[in-house]
Design goal:
single chain, two-stranded antiparallel sheet, alpha+beta, 2 helices
């Protein structure tokens, strides 16, 4: 942190995970940082429903069998 600016290193996934430096005002850095903090009482859920880790393999297999294939020309509805 220098002169109320913060310099951080980040990976740019769009350009082959190159490491880059970014300089932000301290207020902007804190604002972006606080976006990652959940309010009290909230729980972070990465995947839910048929993508939940416990049943993912079985549920995706079922989805693939129920969905029409490229050669199947019947209407979906």
């Amino acid at each position: 942190m220098k002169d109320v600016q913060v310099t951080l290193r980040w990976r740019d996934s769009a350009h082959g995970n190159q490491q880059k430096l970014m300089t932000l005002d301290a207020v902007e850095f804190i604002r972006r940082y606080l976006l990652h903090i959940l309010p009290s009482g909230f729980v972070k859920i990465r995947h839910f429903g048929f993508l939940a880790n416990r049943n993912r393999r079985d549920d995706l297999t079922l989805c693939r069998t129920l969905l029409p294939t490229q050669t199947d020309h019947r209407p979906i509805f």
